[in-house]
Give the backbone structure.
Amino acid sequence: MTKIPFFKMCGSGNDFIIVDNRRQALREEDFPGLARRICARNMSLGADGFVVVDQSPTADFKWHFFNSDGSRADMCGNGARCVARFAHLNGIAGHDMTFDTGAGGIAAHVSGDRVKIRMTDPRGMESGMRIETTRGPVTLSRIDTGVPHLVVAVADVGQANVLGLGRELRYHPAFAPAGANVNFTAVGRDGRIFNRTYERGVEGETLACGTGSVAAALLMAGREGMASPVTVVPKSGETLTVYFERTGDRFHRVFLEGNARIICTGELWEDAWNWSAEEGIPENAGNLNHDSGNFSQ
């Protein structure tokens, strides 16, 4: 039976399955399906994302990153910190490293379970956008921090309609066809930024989003005149620190720092991805009687 060695890691509440494929044991065309299968919670190991480490001719390594639905993502801040620590622990890179992503080259420094990464320079920043939704008009900002993000400033993130409004904005025609991640963000009295994120590819709220935390930090810093660094508190409560330099309306030299914890290591057995399931209980299932060997309501 085929077995795949893996690390399960967590960065501020985002969890990832990471494998070393530098010997090309896995085929790239199989990555999306494998991601969907092994990231399925309850049915398999479960995770927010699947990371495949590969060889790079120009950096210490490159990654292939997949969301839990099998879609490919260019960048993931929390995943980047986890893969950096993975690479350091497995002798792929030293404390300081660079690796290739779909968003460009990423530099990282590993110190214990803390990792600081330099993000690609943000682009496409636009503030004060007014978007019509089924819940009424919404004013938001957008920015690309490696992947596209929307930021909605709210008074209380605890009351934000992350699933309802977040999903509607994620699929809004104004941001088609790629869509966007959606952040609901507030600045606390102590200057910390509180952030909750609806993530595309996961299609729900996650406990943290690294690129979303950077998006929230930069846009709120610009709006509130906040100086670097700023602390971002995601839903998990495991804080992230965002560093930046600003020239006029442009942000550059942006860094994200936070933890990258090892949850477990082991081998994925073929059963982890070689499973099948029906689409769900049919609508008339409740009408089946006991004599049929099924159940009734």
